């Protein structure tokens, strides 16, 4: 609390965020969620266009290094196919991005790591989706 012209001003109640219940905050209300592989494609394209530009800062370099390390899909066609698999589901964009980034091998693991999935998709459908994504990852060119 702080004083303002002899009045006691209480700080605004902070928004409670919980990704497990898809309470991501106002900043993410209408935001598109990207796969790490999609961020990699975007950053590499920007890097290629500014290769001679020495203004690439440390944050950019570290981010590029991170996405290169953790990107699960190595080519654009595979990324598009993964997106196409995830799009017709009843899952929220955040949940789709989490599934695409985590590359879970079993539906129990996926539901444990992304608890907001809950009963939005049957175990069999989720298992099938994960197997298709795994197949794309294994056989990408």
Order of helices and strands: EEHHHHHH
**What structural class is derived from the secondary structure elements?**
mainly alpha
Count of DSSP strands: 2
The amount of helix comes to 40-55%
What proportion strand?
under 5%
Radius of gyration: 20 Å
The general outline is globular
Rounded average pLDDT = 86
Uncertain residue ranges? none
Terminal Cα span: 58 Å
Number of helices: 6
Largest sheet, in brief, is: 2 strands, antiparallel
Strand order of the largest sheet: 1-2
Describe the model.
This protein has 141 residues and is mainly α. Helix content is 50%, strand content 4%. It is built from six helices and two strands, in the order ββαααααα. The chain has helices at 36-49, 58-70, 76-86, 93-102, 107-113, 123-138; strands at residues 2-4, 7-9. A two-stranded antiparallel ribbon has the order 1-2. α3 (76-86) packs antiparallel against α6 (123-138). The protein is globular, with a radius of gyration of 20 Å. The chain starts with a strand and ends with a helix. The mean pLDDT is 86.
